[in-house]
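Course assignment 3, question 2. Fill in each field.
Student: A.L.
Task: Predict the tertiary structure for the chain below.
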Amino acid sequence: MKRHPLLGLAALLCCTSPWACGDEPPPPTASGPTLIAPPHVSDFGDPRWAPVAEGETVVARVGAAPITLSAVRDTAAATPGLTPRAALDRLVELEVLAQEAARRGLDSRPGPQRAWREALSQQTLHDFEHSVHPEDMPMKQVRAIYNVPKVRQRYDHHDAWNMSYLMLSCCAATTENCDTEEIQNCFAEAARAIEVAYTELKAQTQEVEPDVDKVDALMRKYREDNETRWPNFAYREQPFYYDPDKPHSEQKGYNVIAENVARTVIDAPFGVLQPPVQSAFGWHLVMKKAHEPASHKTPDDPEVAADIRQNAFPSYLRARFEEWMERLMKGSGAQLFPERLSLLEGGPPAGNAP
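Answer field:
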């Protein structure tokens, strides 16, 4: 299963420990560090679990285990952009996970002393991630996601079409009145120009029709080559919904377009440049790219539910992790002393932890 970031903690572990992202550390060598088994302790205040050098400032405790100012400094330095407070929060989360791992007996694994808690925390994260699956998402949540308009239209929609078109525009969609002498003169001039464009472009596209991608590429290039020739000449790609069996007045969808343009696209073969067609905004040269038949599937359809669960799984996994982490934090006895982080900026000592 693809790994997902859980509050940035897994990335931190991989950065701070050379072995944390693997299953087992490398074997010792004659010139390498000595590998020792981590101590099995029941008291997390035991210095063998979390040794603290003399004179160290403690900025947090998780149960009896201290987190030191130097650990915060090193963690922040290892992650560009990470603030001391964010580094402290991550170290507290790491310690909570490490203690949870030890309670489960995971600390009996051999490993290098310096990667011990990081590796235990990573293993706990790994176990948690693999205990959550897309199919765990309840149907209530699946239905809620389905009812988001942008999600629902993927499964419940009229016939969906996609077209590329070149356009000589004369009247913007926001214009209140297109029936002016200036705009009507533009339509007349555009009608002559679009015939020229069609003749020239069709001579190129007919060599590659009905290859949608090749025709589309020629349309793009023709527009670029004639950008200064016709300043109001544009290329667009537009998907739209349209039920060919209903009159235009009954069309419903997210992009209802001019009837003559829509019908031209619907009736055309794929990948064939069509003769000029006029809309209320200008003249168009259209090419049908794709068609997806109407679909009216509900969230109770097994394929729909599975698709939603799979696509929403990263967010679902994160939410489950945050809930689980909150429960662990509440039972960990974690204590934070963020005011002591000022020592990293040369501030006065704020005392040590009780």
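Instructor remarks: The longest strand covers residues 282-292. The chain is about 40% helix and 15% strand.
Grade: pending
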